[in-house]
Amino acid sequence: MGEESEDHVKRRRLRERMVKSRAPFSELRRRWHARKIDEEVWDELEETLLLADVGPTTTARLLEAVRSRVGKESLADGINEVLAQAICAQLEENSTSRSLVFDEGTTNVWMLVGVNGVGKTTTAAKLAAREQLAGRSVLLAAADTFRAAAAEQLGIWADQLGIEVIRGQDRGDPGAVAFDAVQAAVARNIDLVVVDTAGRLHNKKNLMEELAKVSRVVQRTSALLSEVLLVLDATTGQNGLAQAREFVARAGVTGVVLTKVDGAAKGGIVLAIESELNVPVKLLGVGEAVEDLVVFDPHDFAAALVE
Ligand code: GDP
Asked: Which residues are near ligand 1 (CB < 6 Å)?
């Protein structure tokens, strides 16, 4: 027996982390064992996709794709494999590029936005650690000055990772923190600044204005704001989509980081996010540890969900 390849390990881990989301699809396959395909099978599949938060439009599309590809005399337990291919094809059609934009030769800025509690601070630390491991110099900016705990938490992560973090005054101006951090990074030729932002202000309008201000401030420097990543909590399902729309409309979002995928029961939300927000999912948070951040791969994800 040879050693398990790196890709194989990656896929197996994702599968293990997505155990809750894959459960209903594994259950279908068990129930369908040695059964011929009939209308009831299609009803069960439709119901399972809808319950997984895939959304009605995409569910209809996937059903059509799968139905057109399986023979009438086929056994139902082969459907999962065909469904995985259809999900992968749908994801690939949604977006051809999911890699994080990074322009060599300048200081890049990746800003994280999203409501409180979704995992922004944790994701900032995970991202910084990942990029540092890849050989890039990284600076963290704690621009959530409205919640002292957020800056403290980022400070703890930064200490553990040996990454510098720029913090501002409590209740200070988030734009000023971002500006100071980016200026310092430019002056020192640092490759990347990861900016954690506030998730809640007195009201939504203020929050959106504040985020717009932070991104304007960054754009006034010579650094490049190459990603604005919207962090969404997979466990909130369709409810999270309503708030997400506002961020997408107002904060110039370039990609989604879907967190807590390990605790979520409805992994189909990835498809709903992409069809409703028209923004690609770029990363998945699959646990609380710093290494629990994975690049979103349509093939691996589809297989982990339904196969
Ligand atoms: P923020 O308010 O958006 O900055 O959220 P935090 O980064 O403080 O995270 C809120 C909680 O979610 C913390 O307890 C994190 O450990 C947890 N968390 C973040 N990402 C993940 C994830 O991918 N999986 C799990 N299980 N927990 C996560």
From this structure: 114, 116-122, 150, 153, 199, 259-260, 262-263, 285-288, 292
The CA 91 to ligand 1 mean position distance, Å, reads: 25
The domain limits of the chain are 6-94, 108-253
CA of 203 to the centre of ligand 1 (A): 22
Give this prediction's pTM.
0.96
Give the alpha-carbon dihedral of 96, 99, 101, 103, to 10 degrees: -110
pLDDT in tens, 161-211: 999 999 988 888 899 999 999 999 999 999 999 999 988 876 778 889 999
- State whether CATH 2.60.120.260 applies to domain 6-94: no
Give me the CATH topology for the region 108-253. Answer: Rossmann fold (3.40.50)
